[in-house]
Amino acid sequence: MKEALFHLQWIDYAIMIIYFMFVLGIGWVLKRYMKDANAFLEAGRSMPAWVAGLAFISTNLGALEVMGMTGSGAKYGMLTTHFYWIGAIPAMVFLAIFMMPFYYGSKARSVPEYLKLRFDEKTRGLNAILFAVMTVLASGISMYALALLMEKVLGWDFNVSLWLSAAIVLAYTYLGGLSSAIYNEVLQFFIIVIGLMPIVFLGLHEVGGWSGLKESLAPIVVEKGFAGDTFTTTWKYTGTAAGNPMGVEWYGILFGLGFVLSFGYWCTNFLIVQRAMAAESTTAARNTPLIGAIPKMLIPFLIIVPGIVALVLMNKTGSGFTIMENGKANYDLTIIKLLEYYLPTGVLGLGITALLASFMSGMAGNVSAFNTVWTYDIYQSYIRPATNDKQADAKHYLKVGRLATVFGVLVSIAAAYLAGLFGNIMDFLQTIFSMINAPLFAVIFLGMFWKRTTGHGAFIGLLGGFFVALLHHGLTVPAGATTLVKGGWISVAHTYPVEMAQNFWTAIFACAAAAIITVVISLGTKQQKTDDELRGLVYSLTPKIQEDHVVWYKRTNTLAIFVLVMMVILSILFW
Amino acid sequence: MLDIRIPIGLLFTVLGVLVTAYGIITNSDTELYTKSFQYNVNLWSGLVMLVFGVVMLLTVKKKKT
């Protein structure tokens, strides 16, 4: 055993073991419901809205997110909430009201399949292959990070951690498919809330509540060269890029994060949308993102506020709190160090279990999205098309879905080792992901709301948007970049104050370029689909949804208004 | 299909009982709770989980009858 940060006691291990017994148990119980491909890959479209809704945000609440966002809390303060409020809520509301009816109503089983129905085969193929590759790589990265963490924190061997966590994920997704992944995401959501709650209370207790936090922050923040309340406000200092630690102006936040990045992520990423597509009815599918939005808005208090407390602790003499590692601040360690600092044996086990759980459910989410796209959009489309025998097909594709699960986990493991070999691969992949996602939103958006959009337009728009993103990345750098992975590999035309600003603008350019190219090419090419074929896929050709038969408080519009009002109130409170 | 409230309810009831019990046993251990300013966080977290778990299980029963 290597030197570990934590020395867990029997009770901590007991909590961990009980939790993972339940995780595996859920997979085992769900196994008998997995009779065909539809049950395995789409959860039989049977999830109640609240289950799908919690899974919807839980998929996004992976451990990398928790670690990263607590770190961002220490780096940027309450400005980080932009990722949870303006950078998530409008997109989720838009998905619920305008896009979900098409995703769910078209009976498409995946986002690539929607592209096939709306545009053509090549657009679907491009998206399906890119998505499949990116998803397993993402899963590999999160496995790598998990194994690294277990090595550092618990002293477990890297290889053992990697294969053990892969085996657990494989076991429950192989047994219970998407249902199992969703159920475990809901379980993970609750364990993460309960596991991190003590840190929030103890942290705020130590600094003297919210007002105490503000007071102790002021001198620290002033020393950094910002106004004293920069870290406890959200919009106040976004008038200039230099006035806030994120280095982005309000319009960069509004358009880059609030529009391009968040719409690209929440509205078109199949990993996320798949949770809503598994809901039991159109109303449930539309309410899924809205129900998820409520906890989403409150998560900052669970993970960002402790990060801000950590910043105070770092600067308090005698606290002994540090995130320094080999002479450099490692912000990803913030949450781990907080667990160590505040939690005694017992709740410590709970906190560690919560982190491990969110790592694994992140992987399971990726794997369960991968096997769906692989089975329906690649295997069924190009390798073995459906036959006339529906029953035999359902069995056959179930088998393929299961094999794809095994394959996906194995490739993830390979990707995890690859990530270990090349330290920069994570940054590199994250950059590529955002370049692919931003154009996709422009294309799907035009497809849904402009019936003239053609398949050629969509396909060339996707590629064009990606190349513009690449070009922008090749021509700009964030200040202080040391590797070409960060940009500027063509030449340096512009320097951004921080990397985040560069990411925002890359996405804005990619999305705008994709939109313009798609419109131009669409106007120059002939629409291959008839109005009849586009019914249910395009806004103007689809009958409006009537909500009269639903109780008023369960209506999508009611929930949407509630969610938006809540966001506005939070934004004003922390202006 | 398995009602998800059953596994959630069971898990948090079991964890709740375990952690609450641990909190009670260690209640006088001032050294253990130095980190948490002498708050018995095990007892509190345990009780929260126990209540949550039991409530989850109760909502399942209510639906059946």
Detail the topology: elements first, then pairings.
The complex is a heterodimer of chains A (575) and B (65).
Chain A: H1 10-30, H2 37-42, H3 49-58, H4 63-76, H5 89-105, H6 111-118, H7 121-154, H8 158-207, H9 209-223, H10 250-268, H11 270-277, H12 282-314, E1 324-325, E2 328-329, H13 334-342, H14 347-383, H15 390-421, H16 425-449, H17 455-475, E3 476-478, E4 494-496, H18 499-524, H19 531-534, H20 556-573
Parallel strand pairs in A: 3-4
Antiparallel strand pairs in A: 1-2
Helix pairs in contact in A: 1-8, 1-14, 3-8, 3-11, 3-12, 4-12, 5-10, 5-12, 5-20, 6-7, 7-8, 7-14, 7-15, 7-16, 7-17, 8-9, 8-12, 8-14, 8-15, 9-12, 10-16, 10-18, 12-20, 14-15, 16-17, 16-18, 17-18
Chain B: H1 5-25, H2 41-64
Write a structural description:
The complex is a heterodimer of chains A (about 575) and B (about 60). In chain A, helix 3 (about 50-60) packs antiparallel against helix 11, helix 7 packs across helix 8 and helix 8 (about 160-205) packs across helix 9. With about 575 residues, chain A is mainly alpha-helical. Chain A contains 20 helices and 4 strands. In chain A, a hairpin with a 2-residue loop joins strand 1 and strand 2 (about 330). Chain A has 2 domains: about 10-420 and about 545-575, Sodium/glucose cotransporter, CATH 1.20.1730.10; about 420-540, no CATH class. The longest helix of chain A is centred in the first third of the chain and has 50 residues, at about 160-205. A two-stranded antiparallel ribbon of chain A has the order 1-2. A two-stranded parallel sheet of chain A has the order 3-4. By secondary structure, chain B is an all-alpha fold. Chain B has one domain (about 5-25, about 35-60). Chain B has 2 helices and no strands. The radius of gyration of chain B is 15 Å and the shape is rod-shaped. The two termini of chain B are about 20 Å apart.
